[in-house]
Amino acid sequence: MSWFILFIAGLLEIFWAIGLKYSDGFTKFWPSVGTVLSLVASFILLGIAMKDLPVGTAYAIWVGIGAVGTAILGIMLFNESADILKIVSLGFICVGIVGLKLAHNA
């Protein structure tokens, strides 16, 4: 269950990171509210997941999910560049996430 909670925490990290863009420096009320709620929920779930998972593994996976998801949505929503180096680098992060999960089970 801790892995599922960690995954949801990572997804919420994506929401608050994208929400920062939509909040326009916290000048737009509802995007700001959504950003803060996502951030708080993400941190709470990360903390819950860390009760059973090693801190280094949980934190790295949480950051990795957030980084990859935010970069992909940045490409899709904000027309950020999608050059081959960026895509390959995101792939390396995904490999790292899987590697950390497998290393935990070993």
TrEMBL record:
The chain crosses the membrane at residues 29-50, 57-78, 84-103. NCBIfam families: PRK11431.1. The gene is sugE. Keywords: Cell membrane, Membrane, Transmembrane, Transmembrane helix, Transport. Coiled coil: none annotated. This is Guanidinium exporter. Belongs to the drug/metabolite transporter (DMT) superfamily. Small multidrug resistance (SMR) (TC 2.A.7.1) family. Gdx/SugE subfamily. It is found in: Cell membrane. It comes from Colwellia asteriadis. SUPFAM superfamilies: Multidrug resistance efflux transporter EmrE. It is a multi-pass membrane protein. It comes from the Bacteria. InterPro entries: EmrE-like, Small_drug/metabolite_transptr, Small_multidrug_res. Pfam families: Multi_Drug_Res (PF00893).
